[in-house]
Amino acid sequence: xxxxxxxxxxxxxxxxxxxxxxxxxxxxxxxxxxxxxxxxxxxxxxxxxxxxxxxxxxxxxxxxxxxxxxxxxxxxxxxxxxxxxxxxxxxxxxxxxxxxxxxxxxxxxxxxxxxxxxxxxxxxxxxxxxxxxxxxxxxxxxxxxxxxxxxxxxxxxxxxxxxxxxxxxxxxxxxxxxxxxxxxxxxxxxxxxxxxxxxxxxxxxxxxxxxxxxxxxxxxxxxxxxxxxxxxxxxxxxxxxxxxxxxxxxxxxxxxxxxxxxxxxxxxxxxxxxxxxxxxxxxxxxxxxxxxxxxxxxxxxxxxxxxxxxxxxxxxxxxxxxxxxxxxxxxxxxxxxxxxxxxxxxxxxxxxxxxxxxxxxxxxxxxxxxxxxxxxxxxxxxxxxxxxxxxxxxxxxxxxxxxxxxxxxxxxxxxxxxxxxxxxxxxxxxxxxxxxxxxxxxxxxxxxxxx
Length: 451
Ligand SMILES: Cc1cc2nc3c(=O)[nH]c(=O)nc-3n(C[C@H](O)[C@H](O)[C@H](O)COP(=O)(O)OP(=O)(O)OC[C@H]3O[C@@H](n4cnc5c(N)ncnc54)[C@H](O)[C@@H]3O)c2cc1C
Known about the structure:
The chain has 451 residues and is α+β, with helices and mostly antiparallel strands. Helix content is 30%, strand content 23%. The chain has eleven helices and 19 strands. It has helices at residues 20-24, 49-62, 95-102, 104-126, 149-162, 171-175, 197-210, 283-289, 331-344, 394-406, 430-449, and strands spanning 39-45, 66-69, 85-86, 135-136, 139-143, 167-169, 185-189, 193-194, 214-216, 221-226, 234-238, 241-250, 268-280, 296-299, 306-309, 314-320, 358-367, 373-378, 381-385. A hairpin with a 6-residue loop joins strand 14 (296-299) and strand 15. It is globular. Bound molecules: flavin-adenine dinucleotide. Flavin-adenine dinucleotide (FAD) binds at residues 9-10, 45-51, 69-72, 76-79, 81-85, 220-221, 251-255, 257, 260, 273-275, 318, 362, 364, 387, 389-393, 395. Residues 9-10, 45-51, 69-72, 76-79, 81-85, 220-221, 251-255, 257, 260, 273-275, 318, 362, 364, 387, 389-393, 395 line the site of flavin-adenine dinucleotide. One of its GO terms (cellular component) is cytoplasm. Residues 42-405 form the FAD dependent oxidoreductase domain.
């Protein structure tokens, strides 16, 4: 599998992920092009949620001539591989962090920004004939061990100030909704919902094409030279030929190759996140776990597990994947996830008798200080990345914001928009640090599973 730290670039003919979404969805795709124009006012690299939202905004609001170059098929990266948890927020930091560091007004403004992201997601839902196959009912953040209940309750007390509709479930309550030995209490976030990520990607792509964005697929950017002075200083070489641009938006996120542009090198850590989908559960199996297809669940582990019941009765279960791309498809990672699923729901132990129906992985981008940035890394170059695995909702707005930045508009005075992504110290050692992190938190998080 492509590995951003080792390979020059993804594609241009990499197969789509072997995902449940790809096997069970027939979205209506817009036309794409095999021919690159010689020039464009803006070239967007990467056709995921970020790149397509940026392109849509640039064409629709600013009437820019926009070309999106994508290494493989539209949405080949995370945007068609994710679990479809649409939640308010991004990164790994909560309101209490923002409140302590920047004050109450900034924390409130961040809450408003998350609501704006939801509003843009709703626009894409309305533009989708299948309404994204939304499963409305909210998200449960569950304490996976008694020692995490008190901290989760403290989070709830602070959270309810910003999101008053959230509610607290004690152990008896949560056991009626997630019948698991690893569920001791929970916060319920009613606004969140489950969606089909492939339908979402196709909805944005159709809107972008309708706004005259030119979508060029299987066009991997392999070289980038800057010649200051002219109208089109950025000269990009792709597998479909060359194109010159006045401005470039880098929307490659966790798939950003090391050599793409020096200004973004070493500022994110690509981490593999993996998902399995089981065969459809029997009615008895579904009853035994008490999980509703309307609710999304994630736990309080540092290396989190998350799950949801799909409309056809299959269980989707996700967590961390391998460290290196070359190991991503090894069966031991699917086995490990399956064993975690059965530890969460022991009544489903028959699932261990066969490999999961679907298993796939994708690269999410971790930021050194745990939150993304929309910023200008170099002259005429703009980017939005580092969502730390929480981009389904936020990327919709971040794409819009990076387009506004490229057009010289001021952005809201929020931490996401005021500084560059910090560089990882000793970027070459990122993988070693990641292994140590996994080893340590894997041990701590294992305690409740092996009780
Ligand atoms: C298994 C998994 C589960 C997830 N679940 C959730 C979830 O439930 N909820 C949530 O909020 N988030 C989730 N995420 C994260 C979420 O999917 C991402 O944050 C989001 O999709 C990022 O979108 P993006 O457009 O920024 O990047 P991507 O969708 O990754 O797009 C980047 C694109 O850049 C292209 N590219 C890279 N290099 C080049 C090049 N040189 N030339 C041309 N093109 C290039 C790639 O081909 C790729 O298509 C999950 C991620 C994974 C992997």
